[in-house]
Amino acid sequence: MRLPLLWILLTGLMSAEPLRILQKECFRCHTPEKRKGGLVMTSRTALLKGGDSGPVLVPGDPAKSSLIGLLTEDADPHMPPKGKLSSGEIATLRDWVKKGAVWNESALAQAEPIKAIPLAKTPSAYRPVTALQVSPDRSTLAVGRGSNVELFDLKAKEVTKTGELTIEEVVQSIAWSPDGKALAAGGFRRIFVWDAIARERIALLTEHLEGRVTALCFSGGRLIAADDLPGQRGSFRIWSAQDWTWQTEKPGVHGDTIYDLCVSADGKRLASGSADKQIKVWDAASLNLLKAIEGHTGFVLTLAFSPNGQKLASGGDDEQVKVWSMENWKLLHNLAESRPTRAITDLAWLHNDGLVVVADDGGAREWTKLVPHEGGQTSAGGTRREFQKHLHSLTQITLAGERTFVGDDQGTLEVRDANGKVLQKLP
After folding, report:
1. CA 25, CA 110: separation in Å to the nearest integer?
2. To pair with 315 at 20 to 30 A between CA atoms, which of 223, 276, 350, 398?
3. What are the residue ranges of CATH 2.130.10.10 in the chain?
4. pLDDT confidence of residue 268
5. 147 pLDDT higher than 50
6. What is the mean pLDDT of residues 271-300?
7. CA–CA separation, 51 vs 41, rounded Å?
8. 3-class secondary structure for the chain?
């Protein structure tokens, strides 16, 4: 019995590496949802079926398998379209096909070992505004800027800085607990949690984190983190928001980085937007998927539910702002730009029929009186008002009463009025 068992183990090991290569380099564009070129690669059955151009895999014959042929440097088209596999990776896949293309499902389920990555100290001059979050009682603004979470008092007419919390690495995300008593910030494989009143750290969460914590939200007594491995997967990691103990996870809910999470005002729905170009809407209590929405042709960078929860707005690096119905999942508004804007980096609802968005080109604009989408590629969208263009790339926007707060990639943080006039620059 020992020799057959040893052979099974060796076969499993030999088939693990090629599948991990496919998972890393190919699955992103060839999931059942995306199926680029009509090809699904996430199962052996689907891969054998082929795509729009016919079969791509002939087990035992690499020469007849276009899966291998398209990997060569002079192939046209060349796969993957961005970058190329090393000669060793191509040889591994060729040998895998030659030996029958054995499919090792367990290899896909197993995460690659997490390698320790020492972090250098963040340069003091590197201070992009990466997150803006107003506390639930609208009294405090938390700002992710460089390696610090800065706190500003909003109760007076003049905004003043009242404190600073450091994580000694670039702040990727921020979230307030619903009662405003806790504040969480995500970095690289770490989540810092503070008592927002005493401003003392009460937890450091590290369980199962693989990469950057690109988004955070509180929902149903839990802290939900978006954990990313770029180009491979985006996952949910979940902790109790009472005692900060580990609860569970949902690995690979997206095929790439999750850039944003948002929860509807009634707390019933959670939305996630990803570099895999998809928006996913989840039941917030069970985290069961309600709908996967496709419509963006680039990374989905920002999401926000309307105040009444009936609409979801999304923006991405395809320069598009879209508004979706949360009743029938249809596209309600496709907000067209009169000129290229570059990526839509953040957005916020003014009210149930109006949005303000910021973009990578430094532009900020307002959309009101939204017009229903009529089926064309783009539509006029509604009444559009453009504010004075900012010198640098705008990264974040949030609202608090009559004031708007915007931040850029150089660390500038401004307070503006409803007409876009700069009232104050925050140090």
Report:
1. 17
2. 223
3. 129-426
4. 98
5. yes
6. 97
7. 10
8. CHHHHHHHHHHHHHHHHHHHHHHHHCHHHCCCCCCHHHCCCCCHHHHHHCECCECCCCCCCHHHCHHHHCCCCCCCCCCCCCCCCCHHHHHHHHHHHHCCCCCCHHHHHCCCCCCCCCCCCCCCCCCCEEEEEECCCCCEEEEEECCEEEEEECCCCCCEEEEEEECCCCCCEEEECCCCCEEEEECECCEEEEECCCCEEEEEECCCCCCEEEEEEEECCEEEEEEEECCCEEEEEEEECCCCCEEEEEEEEECCCEEEEEECCCCCEEEEEECCCEEEEEECCCCCEEEEEECCCCCEEEEEECCCCCEEEEEECCCCEEEEECCCCCEEEEECCCCCCCCEEEEEEEECCEEEEEECCCCEEEEECCCCCCCCCCECCCEEEECCCCCCCEEEEEEECCEEEEEECCCCEEEECCCCCEEEEEC
Token couple for 376: 């064309």
β 289-294/182-186 pair status = unpaired
| pLDDT, tens only, 187-235 | 999 999 999 999 999 999 999 999 999 999 999 999 999 999 887 889 9
Nearest partner of 210 among 258, 247, 245, judged by Cα: 258
Q: Measure the CA–CA gap between 238 and 249, rounded to whole angstroms.
A: 6
Q: Are 425 and 161 in contact (CB under 8 A)?
A: no
Share of residues in the chain with pLDDT > 90 (%): 62
CA distance 182 to 180: 6
Radius of gyration of the chain (CA): 23
Give the separation between CA 125 and CA 107, rounded to whole angstroms: 43
- Count other C-beta atoms under 10 Å from residue 124's C-beta: 8
Show the tokens assigned to 32. Answer: 């059942």
Could you tell me the two tokens for 56? 């791509």
Q: How far apart are CA 43 and CA 226, in angstroms?
A: 25
Q: What is the pLDDT of residue 312?
A: 99
User: In whole numbers, what is the pLDDT of the chain averaged over residues?
Assistant: 89
Global pTM? 0.80
The two beta strands, 311-316 and 300-305, are antiparallel
Whether residue 5 is predicted with pLDDT greater than 60 in this model: the reply is no
Question: Which of 12, 209, 249 is closest to 114 using CA atoms?
Answer: 209
Paired strand residues for 129: 145
Given 3.90.1300.10, 2.130.10.10, 3.30.1360.120, 3.50.50.60, which CATH number is that of 129-426? 2.130.10.10
Between residues 108 and 424, which one has the greater pLDDT?
424
